[in-house]
Specification:
The protein has 334 residues and is α+β, with helices and mostly antiparallel strands. The protein has 11 helices and 7 strands. The strands form 2 sheets. Strands 2-3-1-6-7 form a 5-stranded mixed beta sheet, sandwiched between helices. The protein has a two-stranded antiparallel sheet with strand order 4-5. A hairpin with a 6-residue loop joins strand 4 and strand 5. It is elongated and about 105 Å long. 21% of the residues are buried.
Length: 334
């Protein structure tokens, strides 16, 4: 091994060690567990200090404030999942490209075979006019029929493969817009739905809901119980708000897009969901120990014509925090 190469390896190892120490310090400072999502988040911040994520973290933590798990998820704590989704998407893109190239090659081959057949046919026709034996024409026709059957078989196989690939692409597209835990549409799907309905001029009301004291549930009973609570809340909201767009925005936060109803009617619907959740008493599946009441708070508002999602969401989010400050387990609207 040459001296220059050895020097580069040592430098790379030193750089890796420095990054690891910086990531470890970041996780320790914010009291974050060293799970893959947190590590990937910290790695991005450390390795891209001038990036958008690092700037957002600097803004949130200005004045010595620690990041919360909600901050991590909101800013991009799903990095690991995103990378996995990206890898799957890259695989489908590669398959699609291969499919297109395969069709292109097949068409070129069929065009070449057709051109050869045309030349042979013209030559045979000339020969027949000169009194040649028709056996050549019969032979040529048989060869071309074999080529046609072969091309048909290849085309059928390629079409079947394309159908399977199309189904995979549709499934991947659906997965990219669906929350894997609750089965609800995710933030991306919600943003697309708002943009689409707003562009059509649909009358919209937006509610932002947050599970009350959810961190206490996770800390006291564990994340698996917390996941069950989120699923239960998702089911209650979906059932009560049937016909409207219910999505998991991130963490313990849900959003509901009410279409073609007045704010008062949307409020009555969401209030019904809140009372249903409040009345239910959860128990631990393993021990039958009572979990106690689980509630959510919400803020909701009507979207004005032409308003951006940021403006409407910001107003609903402020109302949500007013509901939290006002004692939780309530819906605030304006």
């Amino acid at each position: 091994m040459g001296l220059a190469r050895s020097t580069r390896l040592v430098a790379a190892e030193d750089r890796a060690a420095q990054i690891f120490e910086c990531v470890r310090a970041f996780l320790t400072l914010h009291r974050l567990g060293a799970d893959p999502a947190h590590y990937a988040f910290a790695h991005d911040v450390v390795c891209n200090p001038a990036g958008a994520l690092a700037k957002s973290v600097a803004t949130i933590t200005d004045g010595g404030i620690r990041l919360s798990a909600r901050d991590i998820e909101t800013l991009g704590g799903g990095t690991v999942a995103a990378l996995a989704d990206g890898a799957a998407s890259d695989g489908l893109v590669a398959q699609t490209q291969m499919q297109v190239e395969g069709f292109t090659d097949m068409m070129r081959s069929m065009r070449a075979e057709t051109a050869d057949f045309g030349r042979d046919l013209a030559a045979s026709a000339t020969a027949l006019q000169g009194g040649a034996d028709s056996d050549d024409m019969i032979r040529l026709t048989a060869v071309m029929l074999d080529r046609v059957r072969s091309a048909e078989a290849r085309l059928q196989a390629a079409t079947s493969e394309a159908d399977q690939l199309r189904a995979k692409l549709e499934e991947a597209r659906g997965d990219a817009r669906r929350d894997p835990l609750t089965g609800l549409p995710n933030r991306r799907a919600f943003e697309e739905a708002f943009a689409e309905q707003s562009a059509r001029g649909t009358r919209l009301c937006l509610a932002v809901c947050d599970v009350d004291r959810f961190k206490r549930v996770n800390d006291q009973f564990g994340h698996s119980v917390g996941d069950r609570v989120l699923k239960a809340i998702a089911g209650a909201l979906s059932s009560a708000c049937e016909g409207h767009f219910v999505a998991r925005y991130g963490g313990e936060e849900f959003v509901i897009l009410f279409s073609n109803v007045e704010l008062a009617q949307a409020h009555a619907t969401l209030e019904s969901a809140r009372l249903t959740v409040d009345a239910k008493r959860y128990r631990l599946r393993e021990t039958d120990m009572p979990l106690g009441a689980v509630t959510f708070s919400a803020g909701m508002t009507a979207a004005e014509g032409g308003e951006t999602l940021g403006a409407v969401f910001g107003r609903a989010d402020k109302l949500l925090y007013a509901a939290k400050d006002g004692g939780r387990n309530q819906v605030r609207l304006v």
